[in-house]
UniProtKB/TrEMBL annotation:
This is Uncharacterized protein LOC111111500. InterPro entries: 6-blade_b-propeller_TolB-like, TRIM45/56/19-like, Znf_B-box. It comes from the Eukaryota. Keywords: Metal-binding, Zinc, Zinc-finger. One of its GO terms (molecular function) is zinc ion binding. It comes from Crassostrea virginica (Eastern oyster). Residues 9-54, 66-103 form the B box-type domain.
Amino acid sequence: MAAAKAGAHDVVTCDLCDKSTKQFCNSCQVSLCETCVEEHRDEFKSLSHEIVNFLERKSQLVFPGCKDHPGQRCEVHCNNCDGPVCVKCILSGPHKGHDVEELIETFERRRQETKRKTAEIKEKILPKCMKEDTDNERAMSRANSQFDDLGKECKSLRQSWHQEVDDIFDKMDFLSKTFKDQNLNRLRAYKNEIQNVMSDINETLETNDKVLQSNKLSDINNYLSNLNKVANLPKNPDITMPHIEAKMNHEKELNLEMGNFKATLTQSSEYSHSTDAPCLTPKTAVLLMDEVKVISTIPTNCDNLCGISCVGEAEGWVFGEHDNNISRIDMQGSVNDTVSTGPRYGPKAISVSNEGKLLYSISEEKLGSVKLVRTGWSEQLIIAPPWWTPEQLCCTRSGDILLNEKLWHWKLGGNIPKDNRIVRYHNKEKSQEINKDRNGVSIFMKGPRSLYMSENNNGDICVSDSNDRSVVVVNQTGRVRFRYDGVPARRKRPFDPRDIVTDAYNQIILTDYSNNCLHILDQNGQFLKCVEGCGLENPKGLSLDRKGRLWVGTKSKSIKIIKYMAPE
């Protein structure tokens, strides 16, 4: 039934215009006003129209008109042609002899089929579509989040790669500065020697002139000229100028060399999504001996030998835990020199400068300082700030001093360690403080024990933090590169790191006091080897001599000299 249009106040209007409806065509199921009745009849002249009062209308099916027989309505469905036809089409028309059925039956069958399909759409297809739509929304949200994470990962990797490149060139800048300082120091020393020779020459010339002007035979006969002495000029130092060699394999590998420093930045896969930072690897052949060799065992009088600093290849400065003296001993145990730090206070730590001078840290009353030992006396180089005590120290290749300073909170009944830091001193002035990371978090654990330090050839500062039972390595800017917790060594007791050194291969070596062994790591913190079974009873002090041998101080008052590297 055609729905009549409703106007204001529910007035039913004509289906052909907007006037109020009065009539209804039952045959066509159309609402009509009085004016449109004739128009409706004229439009469908060939069909019969049952026009009644609107209130007497009937709801019935509307049969379509036949295209071939005007005036006839199609009341039959031709199954052969699948279309509505009239009676004349079946009796004498083109559909004669075809399989037919009443159009009402076709309508009802197809109506039921439509209802079934509608129910299927509502009950199955639409819910499935709605579920797919919901799942798709979730997938879009998940994909959006994952691609955001991928973007963040790419950004992080970009920063990581850039940082690695920056680290490489920071190290090269550091080495360049170190080479410059070393060579300029040689030239300055040579200049001083030449000026001393020139001064001696001028004195000799003045003396010779006086002798030549004398008329006394005794002056000439007794005069011994030192011409031969001043004629022997000091040897001009050889200045080594390192050069940079760069090799780039496009999108594969970058190799850089400067002097003995070699670095490689490698891209392992062009499409890799690994979050691992690119690896900086030295190419020097590192040959660790399968079985280390104890070259010598040096007896000392030092209880719990905790401080060793080698001088050359056959001597070292040593002191024990409660000593007020620092002794210079050789490989036979003979004491060749002794430095007294005073009757009341012993040294905290010792180190040897590039010129072979002894330095030691000490706390006297409330004054902490670092002193340089000269012939017969000690010069005060550094005074620690108030409330800070100087602990371990390390002389760098550039001539700087790295000093561990500990802040104590003075309380009745004892002192409580509050903070631990490393300070770099250049020409006696503080030039760098290493204490917190970029997030403001303390790098080192506060506690009663000192931080042992060693500077690597690549400029890294390697720190043994026994309060945290770890080794932390920072670059020359103070950024943490990695930490080592001793787990890869698989020792029985908890990791207990003490003294630490770095060798010519950038390897990191440290004593493990509780496990009676040494740990050897590469420059990136990868565990390489444990040295044990050499009579290392509670090893603490550690140093390297000029031949690359380890001097290890033990609790049993002896020093073990250990060869751990095979010839290349």
